[in-house]
Design goal:
homodimer, 497 residues, alpha/beta, Barwin-like endoglucanases, 6-stranded mixed barrel, 18 helices
Chain lengths: 497, 497
């Protein structure tokens, strides 16, 4: 469908997105809505604009064009403008094609990602695209195309040479291994520019936890400087424009709480590609209360991660471990930061599971890179941790990011309002409810309240006596403590039998 | 996931949609976004609200509740509120289920329609539902459920006794048979409460055309009075709350120009059910430039229409006719109204095709109702038309709707700016481009400009001589006429060979 209208020059600029103004009633009759993409043809030249409508500023038969458009295209008042509804936009055609069950090629997928990033596609249109991926699983090739297009439509922070990374799929409380793996690798001369997210549905993300020790928001240039100085960094990735389509896709995934695995793979890998990572270890906790419910799913994901990584020449290892037990004793930004420091500073109270898991992951990454013979990675990682070299490196990173490098684990400030919970019977801890921990931490205010959280005095598998301390709540106010107490009337952190 | 917060009473009312106010940062950490549906539990009672967020009006740990909520639920300041993200809302579960390729039962479909109508589902969520229908065709049973739920979640205008209706699927220029069928049936004592749409993508809808003769916007009660007085009416359905979910589904279908046949069936049938129609004839023009491209599609649709109708006990007949030729000579509200009057008033210039098609449809409807023996419907309809009884009835309807019953076809005001187009060669008209007619009418300003349009002086199949008049443009301004002239440089209304 196309319509013919007369240009009316409007002496205003609209900024980056090109806009044309239609008479509201007429637009309605044309079936055109505010926000629709239009193709205008004027003297044989095509201009792509987004439709705005107004009752009075343009009459029926007119189309209002702003300065950004008419100054470039030399349009006069009363020039004849052919207006076409952009249902033929390549991205929209591609979305329709996929809704019909067909597969997309790279150009089609790139057009979608590119139009998402430049706001050419509306939320509703992006939703159709997400729905198409949910109903018809992407092929491996489509996953590769999606990853490539998502990376290439954002900033490319590409570091050169050997670039390592470690990524946790998440869903497990605590689990701050990243903050130990990064200094171990960096201490051994491996470049590891780690960008992390803040918590969305968990009590703390790596960025939230690192922020207890140092600032985490930097520009690409600043990150480059930090990494050039120390080999590593622990920064927040959300402020960068790495794979920016991801966020917009996430926004339309929320309202249905959709998190298809394919989206997870693309979202993780696109950021790695944009950062220039070429050696990657994925930490994938498997268990009913994590994101990956069973080993069958985990192995399917391992295959897909590996396929996509190899298409980019990325060496990858997926480390799957069946668990739903929190890693470390603390849950919440400050408590997790204290656990990390206790491990790096080799304190007596350090959580053994956190050290072990971090060393294991660091070791596997070292083997993948070829820093040591197969089977010797963990030994090498232990040495770096035990000798204090990892902590020295972490001090350099904290300093480079503007924090206090002389912080001691026992100086970390925790919530002033505490409450202890003791065992109501004797027995063995046979189950830890990761989701309950999550909810109680939320009630306490984590992660926005950094010093709030739970310290687990006991862990899965140990025997406890009636009256022994099980866990401790920390909050910054009586009110938040009270909210957690109420939550705990319905929830059970440990199951004792 | 659920969270515990303390109630803060806010002394304001929000109106019909229940809202709760969360601290912006905290909501973000909860993964809750403005507009999300939440389930609040207070003292064991559940309240469903939509989330709003604010930086300052509520602190973290608090949830702001407006008067509408706390006055009914007897909530005190600091009451403990359990907040659950409504991913478990029945409608959302149902949408997810269908996205996974499963079929829905009536309760599930009703929950979706009901939540659409009450604004419990956001545009993005409705989009997922529409996408699911596009990717996996609805079963016949689902079509019935959809129709029933869409009708029952709106006003039910139910007329009692025998209620007839005629519906054109559309896509054909002119084709104002409805305005002739209704008075014929009503003259024979058949109740035919006709609600029509305005044009969206065509130059005139029945409501636009009838509006040339009389007002068309009425309440349900007013419509009931008009029908009780005259047996018929020709009113605009858009202002009524018949099948209100339809409009909202339409809104998210636009941005991808999706118009699946299933949506068309449900949308048409739900309105018939809400009106209480029990005898229905569907006029379905079939051809490359109409909505139904071929007979195969038409027969598939006939089957589905029939299935759904029978589930409601509606007697139905689908009248399929291969054509892409406009019906009548005029296109545009005033020109079409003139055609209709010329037929009803038996003027010399009346378009034969319009009379014939209207009589044919009226006849089939009369046979369906049992007003005459099979095969005798057209004869009966002709009699009513020829004898002037149809015009008399139309006068009553025009009067009951507040128009001038003594209007003469030749008094209809047309656009003052005319332009004639003549044949540039001799030959036979072998093709009429329905879409081109549409576009030129748009350029002239129809349907918002009622007196704009095209009068076709010739029709498909006739021989013309070079220089003979082919068609006439009518516009209310030189500018609009000029726009149409430009459109006609690229478009061809008739193909002569």
């Amino acid at each position: 469908m196309s319509y013919f209208l007369k240009a009316k020059r409007i002496d205003e600029e609209t900024g980056s997105i090109k806009v044309a103004l239609l008479n509201e009633l007429e637009a309605w009759h044309f079936g055109i809505h505010a926000g629709d993409n239009l193709k205008l043809t004027i003297d044989g030249k095509a201009i792509y604009v987004s439709a705005n409508t107004s009752k009075h500023r343009v009459r029926p038969g007119q189309i209002g064009l702003y300065k950004d458009v008419w100054s470039k295209a030399k349009i006069l008042n009363n020039s004849i403008v052919q207006v076409e509804f952009q249902e033929n936009a390549r991205s929209i055609q591609a979305i329709k094609k996929r809704l019909l069950g067909k597969r997309l090629n790279y150009e089609e997928i790139h057009s979608i990602m590119s139009d998402i990033v430049t706001d050419q596609l509306s939320k509703v249109q992006i939703t159709y695209f997400v729905a198409s991926g949910f109903m018809n699983e992407y092929t491996d090739e489509e996953l590769y195309f999606l990853t490539k297009a998502m990376a290439e439509t954002g900033d490319m922070m590409k570091f050169s040479g050997l670039v390592a990374d470690k990524h946790s799929v998440g869903g497990l409380a605590g689990n701050r291994t990243t903050m130990i793996v990064v200094p171990i690798l960096a201490a051994l001369g491996v470049k590891i520019p780690k960008t992390s997210s803040r918590a969305i549905t968990s009590p703390a993300g790596t960025a939230d936890t690192m922020e207890v020790l140092a600032p985490v928001s930097f520009s690409v240039d600043q990150i480059r400087k930090i990494v050039n100085k120390t080999n590593g960094c622990l920064v927040w990735g959300g402020g960068l424009s790495l794979a920016p389509a991801d966020d917009k896709i996430l926004k339309v995934s929320y309202p249905l709480s959709l998190e298809p695995y394919s989206k997870m793979i693309v979202s993780i890998m696109a950021k790695k590609v944009a950062t220039g990572v070429n050696h990657l270890i994925i930490d994938m906790p498997v268990g009913p209360t994590t994101k990956i419910p069973d080993m069958k799913t985990a192995r399917m994901l391992e295959k897909k991660f590996t396929y996509v990584a190899h298409r980019f020449g990325i060496k990858i290892k997926v480390s799957m471990l069946k668990t739903s037990d929190p890693v470390g004793f603390g849950v919440g930004p400050a408590l997790e930061a204290r656990d990390v420091l206790r491990v790096l500073q080799q304190k007596k109270e350090r959580p053994g599971d956190l050290s072990h898991k971090a060393v294991h992951l660091a070791g596997q990454l070292l083997e993948l890179i070829g820093k040591c013979k197969p089977g010797h990675g963990s030994t090498l990682a232990w040495k770096v941790l035990d000798s204090g070299r990892a902590w020295k490196k972490m001090q350099q990173i904290i300093k480079a990011q503007g924090g206090n490098p002389n912080v001691d684990s026992e100086q970390i400030v925790l919530g002033a309002h505490k409450k202890y919970y003791n065992a109501t019977k004797s027995g063995k801890i046979v189950y830890t409810d990761n989701k309950a921990i999550n909810l109680v931490c939320r009630a306490l205010g984590a992660p926005s309240v950094k010093l709030a959280g739970i310290y687990l005095n006991k862990e899965f598998g140990v025997r406890v006596k009636k009256g022994e301390r099980l866990f401790t709540l920390y909050a910054e106010s009586k009110e938040r403590l009270h909210l957690a107490e109420i939550a705990l009337e319905k929830l059970r952190i440990f199951k004792i039998e």
